[in-house]
Amino acid sequence: MGCRRFAGNRHISRKTMLLKTTVLYITLFTFLMLTASAHDLPRPPRRSAQANETSLDRVQPTSQLQRSSMKELKSSRLFTLTIKLQPTIELGDTPAGKRRIFAVTGGEFEGDRIRGTIMPVIGSDLLLVGADGSARQDVRMLLKTDDGVMVLMTYRGVRHASDEVNARIARGDPVSGADYYLRTVPFFETSSPKYAWINKIVSVGVGERRADSVVYQVFEIL
């Protein structure tokens, strides 16, 4: 009886070993098949370090792209403006500053697309001199073109110079425009279809003060 039980146990052990061996072979076979398949898959081509550097060089920083998309400031001459003035009216020191009033007695403007005269009496410059000595223009004038169209012109601006140059200007002495800074930003308003384009432009005037007038070279910003 004991011999039969021992023989049965030995038969079961052989089956267990055979089963384990079979599982091991199947696992090994599967691993080898997967490894072979991985080697057969196409690999992406390797890029050289030089190629990588070249591609990076082509990528521009965002700030550089923004700068390159901006256009440089360009201008075109609009006209030469000569404003004739009456003697200065000194209003004195007000809460806003030292106020000087210049009444416009007339003048003319001449350009390729528009020309004419400045209507007398209507225009004035309410000049304000600040504590730092700089002067700020506040001007309104009515222009009349050579074909009879009315154009309202308004502008603000800044003039600054040394104390010595300011004293010469106040006395009415001739002073070169190169000796001080005088810039204005004129805007225009008209109901004329012919000159409607002037309603939609930005312009800058470069001025020179004279004894009884101011002369501006006015440029349209393109």
Beta-strand content:
35-45%
In one word, what is the shape? elongated
Number of strands: 10
Q: What is the C-alpha radius of gyration, as a whole number of Å?
A: 44 Å
Average pLDDT confidence is: 83
Cα(first) to Cα(last) distance is 117 Å
Portion of residues within helices: 25-40%
The helix/strand order is: HHHEEEEEEEHEEE
Description:
By secondary structure, the chain is an alpha+beta fold. It folds into two domains: 1-39; 75-221, Beta Barrel (Porin). The chain is elongated. Strands 1, 2, 3, 4, 5, 6, 7, 8, 9 and 10 form a ten-stranded antiparallel β-sheet that branches. Helices cover 30% and strands 40% of the residues.
Question: What is the fold's blueprint, element by element?
Answer:
Elements: H1 2-40, H2 49-58, H3 62-69, E1 75-85, E2 89-94, E3 97-110, E4 115-118, E5 124-129, E6 135-145, E7 150-160, H4 163-171, E8 181-189, E9 202-209, E10 213-221
Antiparallel strand pairs: 1-3, 1-10, 2-3, 3-4, 3-5, 4-6, 5-6, 6-7, 7-8, 8-9, 9-10
